[in-house]
Design a protein that fits this description.
The chain is α+β, with helices and mostly antiparallel strands. About 60% of the residues lie in helices and about 15% in strands. The chain has helices at about 5-30, 40-110, 115-135, and strands spanning about 140, 155-160, 170-175, 175-180, 185, 190-195. The strands form two sheets. It has a three-stranded antiparallel β-sheet. The model has no long low-confidence stretch (mean pLDDT about 80).
Length: about 200
């Protein structure tokens, strides 16, 4: 065997030995160590999970509470509005009913020229009664001289007038109109002027 062949064999043997050692070292290398949590660490992790779940529930309950509070406030406001409308409606009905009594007192006083103690007493009652109704929101209006308005006036009849400026205007009031809370609850019963040659405006 020539020296070159012997050297080649030696080199191959050395290479095989190095490879074998590498394989042995690889097989002998320990596996990655799995770190075990202590009982305290496991409990902390568990509590952190519970805390996160509780936080989610708290947010959900908070949103639900806010929604319920908004709904409650809206319902409260609606009930309050309905109550106010009901009270206002009842008050208006009461005022309209009592208005007839005030009309009767007015007519009784207008039909007498006597100014004795009895009539003075009735006049005092009329004044006090009118004041009480005014405090409930009643306002009466004469309508004399106003342009005819079917929302405020009920034309009992028409009457010829010599002045063109009086055409289609109230020239006589039979019964006063009444307003409660800015709403006409009774139109004034009136006579409307009609000037010859003017266009008719009252049916």
């Amino acid at each position: 065997m020539n020296p070159t062949s012997k050297q080649s064999e030696q080199a191959a043997d050395a290479t095989e030995e190095v490879a074998a050692e590498a394989v042995d070292e690889t097989e002998a290398a320990p596996e990655a160590e799995v770190v075990a949590l202590s009982p305290e660490q496991e409990r902390i992790a568990e509590l952190e999970g519970d805390l996160e779940a509780l936080g989610a529930k708290l947010r959900m309950y908070s949103e639900s509470t806010d929604r319920m509070r908004r709904e409650f406030e809206a319902s409260k406001a609606r009930i309050q509005r309905e109550h106010e409308r009901s009270v206002e409606g009842d008050k208006t009905k009461a005022v309209i009913g009592l208005l007839g009594v005030l009309d009767s007192l007015d007519q009784a006083l207008a039909s007498t020229e006597d100014d004795g103690p009895f009539v003075q007493g009735v006049r005092m009652i009329q004044k006090e009664f009118g004041t009480a109704l005014a405090e409930l929101g009643l306002e009466r209006f004469e309508a004399m001289g106003e342009a005819f308005d079917p929302e405020r006036h009920e034309a009992l009849t028409v009457m010829p007038v010599p002045d063109a400026d009086q055409h289609n205007k109230v020239v006589h009031v039979m019964k006063q109109g009444a307003v409660v809370a800015g709403k006409v609850v009774r139109a004034a019963t009136v006579v409307v002027g009609k000037h010859a040659g003017s266009d008719p405006a009252v049916n």
